[in-house]
Design brief:
The chain is an alpha+beta fold. It is built from eleven helices and 13 strands. The protein folds into three domains: 122 residues, Two-component sensor protein CpxA, periplasmic domain (Beta-Lactamase, 2-Layer Sandwich); 83 residues, Helix Hairpins; 151 residues, 2-Layer Sandwich (Heat Shock Protein 90), CATH 3.30.565.10. It has a six-stranded antiparallel sheet. The protein has a five-stranded mixed sheet with strand order 8-10-11-13-12. A two-stranded antiparallel ribbon has the order 7-9. Strand 4 and strand 5 form a beta hairpin. Helix 1 packs across helix 5, helix 1 packs antiparallel against helix 6 and helix 9 packs parallel to helix 10. This is histidine kinase. Pfam families: HAMP (PF00672), HATPase_c (PF02518), HisKA (PF00512). It catalyses: ATP + protein L-histidine = ADP + protein N-phospho-L-histidine.
Length: 461
């Protein structure tokens, strides 16, 4: 039994994945300044003008000269906007202690005064270099000036992202996509497994799947356990129903045998009469009905355990050969129109014996009522197998097309003449076909009699 943990509940898992996505998004946004260490950007024209004005003010206020002469830089300066730092032959002047390393790093990448750059190192923004010439006696000495400013790194990066919505959307998608995929996969796979189990039930396979009770979240495992209990209950109900039908059929044979024995004794004692003939006729009809019930129970008892995947042509090959032979003996024209190219390449999932029996029942029904001609047409359409059986008999009223598939149903037309049947053949056939997710329907035939059409789904692996 799977150990219970809080994270295995579906609601907690969805809640946790949502907040995980949210915190990861925040973590990436706030850590972007650290990932930005190797990104150096060009100074835009309007910013370049501001830096040049600041450089001019620094020269006029003798700020540059004071720095070169060794004047101390107050800590307050780092909070008072941007301030200049002067560099001469790798000698850094005017920088506070925590600004030395960022300037050294920046100097390694930005050395051309014609194309000054800027870069933020956590909360220190460095821009430059700008060239300044200071007089020293008879010569002018070139100095590189860098401007440093204190910035809020998180504020800068958040402003950058919100100023560019497409980047914000991309970051959200980048974070949420893999997390949501893991979440959907953890929910979807057990549901897909449950769907496969439900499809198996629909096809008549009443076997419980224990993996439904061990995979997925707690709620899905509970659904799996309930589904398996339902499957087992359905299997028991169907098995008990079929066993009861078989038992009843067997029990009915005993009084029927006694009735037939008593009838024989009565005929021997009193001779033949219309009454004994009528009793014998009804007894024979009752015997046929009991035999049909026994046949139904034997065919359907645990029929779902005998399902297999088999080639299409194996369904009708023997049935059509036997029917053609019987039709020939009775001088009936039997035509098969096989319109399927390479039927052995197509498959059906089901009980081959039952399906063949259903097809045989319909064909035998046509043999009973046809005048001289039967056509069997086989074709495929939209992953469905169609088998149409047409005869040129008297046909039946349109209102009876659905009724002929009811058990023990007979009509008072041409098809009610003495044929020895009990009205179970088509009922058995439609029960088998429906058990294989198919359909069996009747319409007027183009030959003038009845058309009965099978529709069965193909097995698509």
């Amino acid at each position: 039994m799977t150990k219970f943990t809080l994270f295995n509940t579906l609601s907690i898992r969805i809640f946790a994945f949502f907040w995980l996505s949210f915190f990861l998004l925040l973590a990436i946004i706030f850590s972007l300044p650290y990932w930005d260490a190797r990104i150096y950007s060009n100074i835009q024209t309007n910013e370049l003008s501001s830096y040049r004005k600041a450089l001019t003010r620094s020269i006029r206020n003798n700020k540059i000269s004071q720095i070169v002469s060794g004047a101390a830089v107050l800590p307050l300066d780092k909070f008072d906007g941007m301030h200049p730092v002067v560099v001469y032959e790798n000698d850094i002047m005017g920088a506070l202690p925590d600004e030395i390393e960022p300037i050294k790093t920046f100097m390694n990448r930005s050395t051309n005064p014609l194309t000054p750059l800027k870069k933020t190192f956590y909360d220190i923004q460095v821009a430059g270099p700008f060239m300044v010439y200071l007089s020293a006696g008879d010569e002018d000495i070139p100095y590189h000036v860098y401007f440093l400013a204190r910035v809020n790194a998180q504020k800068e990066i958040i402003s950058f992202i919100f100023d560019r919505p497409h980047i914000l959307i991309f970051v959200i998608m980048l974070i949420s996509t893999p997390i949501l995929w893991v979440l959907s996969h953890s929910i979807g796979q057990p549901l897909k497994h449950l769907q496969s189990a439900a499809n198996a039930i629909a096809l008549g396979n009443f076997k419980s799947d224990k993996t439904l009770e061990t995979n997925g979240t707690r709620e899905l495992r509970q659904v799996g356990r309930s589904f398996n209990r339902m499957t087992e209950a359905l299997d028991n109900i169907i098995s008990n129903h079929q066993s009861l039908l078989s038992s009843i059929s067997h029990e009915l044979r005993t009084p029927l045998t006694r009735l037939q024995l008593a009838l024989a004794l009565l005929r021997r004692k009193n001779g033949e009469s219309s009454e004994t003939a009528r009793i014998e006729k009804e007894a024979k009809r009752l015997e046929i009905m009991i035999n049909d019930l026994l046949l139904v129970s034997r065919q359907q008892l645990h029929s779902h355990t005998l399902r297999d995947i088999f080639p299409l042509d194996e369904l009708w090959r023997d049935v059509l050969n036997d029917a053609a032979f019987e039709a020939e003996q009775r001088h009936i024209s039997f035509v098969v129109k096989q319109l399927i190219y390479s039927p052995g390449n197509y498959l059906i999932n089901g009980n081959q014996g039952l399906l063949a029996s259903a097809l045989e029942n319909v064909i035998r029904n046509a043999l009973k009522y046809t005048k001289s001609h039967i056509e069997v047409t086989l074709h495929l359409d939209r992953e469905q197998l169609f088998i149409a059986i047409d005869d040129d008999g008297e046909g039946i009223p349109e209102t009876e097309y659905k009724n002929i598939f009811k058990p023990f149903y007979r009509i008072d037309e041409a098809r009610t003449r003495e044929t020895g049947g009990a009205g179970l053949g088509l009922a058995i056939a439609v029960s088998i076909v429906k058990g294989h997710q198919g359909q069996l329907s009747a319409t007027k035939s183009h030959l003038g009699g009845l058309n009965v059409t099978f529709k069965l789904p193909l097995w698509i692996s």
